[in-house]
Design brief:
Elements (H helix, E strand, L loop, with lengths): L2 H16 L1 E2 L6 H10 L6 H11 L22 H7 L4 H14 L3 E5 L5 H7 L4 E6 L2 H13 L6 E5 L2 H15 L6 E4 L5 H11 L10 E6 L5 H13 L2 E4 L3 E6 L6 E6 L2
Parallel strand pairs: 1-9, 2-3, 2-5, 3-4, 5-6, 7-9
Antiparallel strand pairs: 6-8, 7-8
Helix pairs in contact: 2-5, 3-4, 5-6, 9-10
The structure holds S-adenosylmethionine.
């Protein structure tokens, strides 16, 4: 077993020890968000799509663009669907968070097969999503078309480092109002996470209504955990939900830095 496996075991045990119930939250907007995500959205047609991906044996040809895949042997769409996709519950929770935030525009780093992307698009938000692997991106696109989600999703193929500078130049030129929700779920390497957060923070919508930046897999490795600890000290509101961490931006925030149990 890898060192990261033992790290994850210890990190989860520490979280279980210190996490407090969501019911003990005072800032009203956070309380409302927690209440919303406790009842994850579930979309049966998207779950059928997930099952179809799990049976798909198409091989992936491009090397992993992130922190290295933990999938053993040859990578196929099916293996990736079984190991890298967020579960129905996680995707459904993120969709509820998008609703609670009142999200009109969402940015996702790490489309993979686009099941979570489709869940978020089902809330009515427009989702911009980035994926390096062309086979995964093509499979995701065909899934969005089959499930009627494609018109609210803008998929870009390339690495985050290649795509973000050009996208940001376009957003600047178009006077983009910023994203209500940003979901970073790819390239699970601590220094990379910190760079993406720094780069994307100015693209969170400003104003009275708080906006959220969700960092996924914060207990993936020591470097991811170290990045999260650093980030959470820098933001006024940083919620450690276990597998993901939420950083919140807004004009009138009450400081809140805590591990929260959503059940
Ligand atoms: C954990 S999966 C994303 C899961 C998906 N967001 C979900 O909710 O099911 C991470 C994805 O990010 C992609 N990825 C990793 N590093 C990347 C990078 N530097 N640039 C673009 N895509 C990257 C991988 O190819 C992979 O498909």
């Amino acid at each position: 077993m890898s060192r990261d496996f033992f790290f994850q075991l210890g990190a989860w045990a520490r979280w279980g020890w210190k996490a407090k119930s969501w019911r003990l939250t005072h800032p009203p907007h956070l309380f409302a968000w927690f209440e919303a995500v406790r009842r994850p959205m579930r979309q049966e047609d998207l779950e059928s799509l997930r099952r179809a991906f799990e049976r798909n044996s198409t091989p992936l040809t491009a090397p992993d663009a992130g922190a290295g895949s933990r999938v053993r042997g040859a990578r196929t769409v099916g293996k990736v669907a079984r190991t890298a996709l967020k579960s129905a519950r996680q995707a459904g929770r993120l969709a509820r968070l998008a609703e609670a935030v009142g999200a009109e525009r969402v940015l996702e780093l790490g489309t993979c097969l686009g099941v979570t992307t489709a869940y978020i698009a089902r809330t009515g938000a427009h989702v911009t999503t980035l994926e390096a692997d062309p086979v995964l991106a093509a499979a995701a696109r065909s899934g969005w078309e089959r499930t009627g989600c494609a018109e609210r999703i803008e998929g870009h193929v390339g690495t985050f480092a290649e795509l973000l500078p050009n996208l940001m130049a376009t957003w600047r030129a178009e006077g983009h109002p910023g994203f209500d929700l940003i979901f970073i779920d790819g390239h699970h390497h601590g220094p990379a996470l910190r760079e993406y957060v720094e780069l994307l923070r100015p693209w969170l919508r400003r104003g009275d209504r708080p906006a959220a930046l969700v960092c996924d897999d914060i207990r993936w490795s020591p470097s991811m955990w170290h990045a999260w600890e650093t980030l959470s000290a820098e933001w006024t509101v940083a919620v450690d939900c276990g597998s993901s961490g939420w950083l919140v931006e807004g004009s009138r925030l009450t400081p809140f830095r805590r591990a929260v149990r959503l059940r």
